[in-house]
Design goal:
Blueprint: E1 4-7, E2 10-13, H1 24-28, E3 31-33, E4 36-41, E5 46-50, H2 52-65, H3 74-88, E6 94-102, E7 116-124, E8 135-143, H4 160-172, E9 177-181, E10 187-190, E11 194-199, E12 202-205, H5 216-228, E13 233-235, E14 248-253, E15 257-264, E16 267-268, H6 276-289, E17 300-302
Parallel strand pairs: 8-9, 8-15, 12-13
Antiparallel strand pairs: 1-2, 1-7, 3-6, 4-5, 4-6, 5-17, 6-7, 9-10, 11-12, 11-14, 14-15, 15-16
This protein binds 4'-deoxy-4'-aminopyridoxal-5'-phosphate (PMP).
């Protein structure tokens, strides 16, 4: 459990970060959020937040879609998050969850003339999918939200009912994850992660116009494929049955990290577990996120100042402001 949350412009004990049952976002799903990870590097005694500013840039874009205007810049949001993590004093891999939401209390479906608030909390977090080298995946009977229904490129709270329907159907049918198709039957993504397949040495991923969330990890993977592996990246619409003929397939996302797909709709993918390109991307990813690749250190924001990095948690005195 976290000890603190940033809530109503103050850092408060987590028990005090509560909203009313009348909150607009609770009634209508009118909030946006992010999922950010921080990785503990034991050798350096440092916690690194991965792609912090990129997540908050997307967050403010999601806010635009829901007409939420916050009094914070990307830099403010990064500083609030770093402050929170320092207070928590985590020395473990951590998941960070910022939310911006319509906080007015009352009845009435709309986006305009409503107040909004921002909150963020963080907690230690492990793997999202247990079988991360050979996930069993099925194409969902649920279709991905469409841009003209609920904008898929914004991380909107209410839209995750779509993800939950797909994930639960897959899980209750004995699969690890779902692949969700667009309304016109093309591969969009997983329930909460982007999709890649490898065919004849090329890496293929659906375009941003196929109702994907424009993943930050997807962009990281693209850079690794092109710059580290020299693999050509093709962004194009993918048909369902191409999945059955892929040489490799994997998911990527902040929560899921890099997960190799072993089978799709009960057909083995390639060798039936993470193939060579997937394994190299996984290795690069875990090295990069924990600050072990100097070339990509600019993607990692250190939480603790160097001179305090080795101090035990107990010595960091915490002063809580607010209520
Ligand atoms: N698609 C969906 C629906 C997601 O929820 C996520 C997780 N944020 C992703 C893709 C992957 O995005 P990212 O790499 O930015 O975490």
């Amino acid at each position: 459990m976290p000890s603190y949350a940033f809530f109503k412009n103050n850092m408060v004990p987590i028990e005090e970060a509560k909203v009313s049952v009348m909150t607009h976002a609770f009634n209508y799903g009118t909030g946006v959020f992010e999922g950010i990870r921080a990785y503990w590097n034991d050798d350096q005694q440092q916690l690194y937040v991965f792609q912090l500013a990129a997540h908050y840039a997307r967050f403010l874009n999601s806010c635009k879609a829901l007409m939420i205007s916050l009094p914070y810049s990307v830099d403010d949001l990064c500083q609030i998050t770093l402050d929170l993590l320092r207070r928590e004093g985590y020395k473990a891999n951590t998941y960070i969850r910022p939310l911006a939401y319509k906080s007015s209390e009352g009845i009435g479906v709309r986006l305009h003339d409503l107040e909004a608030d921002f909150t963020v909390f963080a907690l230690p977090f492990g793997k999202y999918i247990e079988k991360d080298e050979c996930a069993k995946v099925a194409v969902s009977s649920w279709r991905r939200v469409d841009d003209n229904a609920i904008p898929a490129r914004a991380k909107i709270v209410g839209a995750y009912v779509n993800s939950a329907l797909a994930k639960t159907e897959a899980a209750l049918n004995g699969y690890d994850e779902a692949i969700v198709l667009t309304q016109d039957g093309h591969v969009s993504e997983g329930s909460a992660e982007n999709f890649w397949m490898v065919k004849n040495g090329k890496a293929i991923t659906p375009p941003v116009s196929d109702n994907i969330l424009e993943g930050i990890t997807r962009q990281v993977v693209r850079e690794f494929l092109q710059n580290e592996l020299g693999v050509e990246v093709v962004e194009r619409t993918i048909d369902r049955t191409e999945l059955y003929q892929a040489d490799e397939a994997f998911f990527c996302g902040t929560g899921v990290e890099i997960v190799g797909i072993g089978e799709i709709d009960r057909r083995p993918v390639g060798i039936g577990r993470a193939g060579p390109i997937t394994r190299r991307i996984r290795q690069l990813y875990f090295d990069a996120v924990s600050g072990r690749l100097p070339k990509y250190l600019s993607w990692c924001t250190p939480v603790y100042p160097e001179q305090r990095a080795t101090m035990p948690r107990i010595e960091r005195k915490v002063k809580v402001t607010g209520k």
